[in-house]
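Data card: per-record layout.
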Amino acid sequence: MGWRLTWSGEYRDTTSGSGSISISPVTTYTVSYNANGGSGAPGTQTKTHGTNLTLSSTKPTKTGYTFKGWCKTSSANVVDYAPGAIYSANASITLYACWDPLRYSVTYNANGGSGAPSTQQKVYGTNLTLSSTTPTRTGYNFVGWGESSTSTTATYQPGETYSQNAGITLYAIWSANTYSVVYNANGGYNAPASQIKTYNQTLKLSTQIPTRENYEFIGWSENSSATSATYGIGSNYTENRSIVLYAIWVQVETATM
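The structure for this 257-residue chain is written out next.
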């Protein structure tokens, strides 16, 4: 218990006497700190009645959270006192740490396409549902999202759960469209096997030659009744579409002796 005695002036010229003096105790209050799920709260402080107390400047810590200040209740999110602030109330109090969870950015990169989703915010300790928006790219199919611009397989799909407590940039993974090139011997036989043409890539047509008795093969055409060839053996095919190529024949005249 603290005491305060104030004395002024002099008391003298008395050789004897008797009496009493009353001294009132000084009232004090306790300021306690609660880390509220964190650790490293300051020690308790004592406040004297009628005088201001400078609150501790020590800040507690909590993984995944930023310390905002001190609140009067454990569930509050509005700070009442900052570290080092003045506490002037003549009352005991428990101050609770106010925490703000860390947030992480999830950014989308269309990676050559367009229409990537907007950036999302992931809150520490909670799952994030990734955007269901899918980008587009001419000549390609969207496969999913990867963690590298050079990825060939998807790590995440639209609408999937992202649970990492870290920022990330997700890159669109693309699969190029493919087209079939089919050969028809058109009355002959031994036509080449079908080929696959990839979007925006040049395909060299087969060098295999079909055969037909009494006919000479002169090339390939999209029209089965054509009389001239559009493509020759081993020609380059550059169009981004599927096609059926028909063998074009010229009859060979034979003489009978």
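Known properties of this structure: The longest strand covers residues 93-101. The chain is about 0% helix and 40% strand.

See the next section for split statistics.
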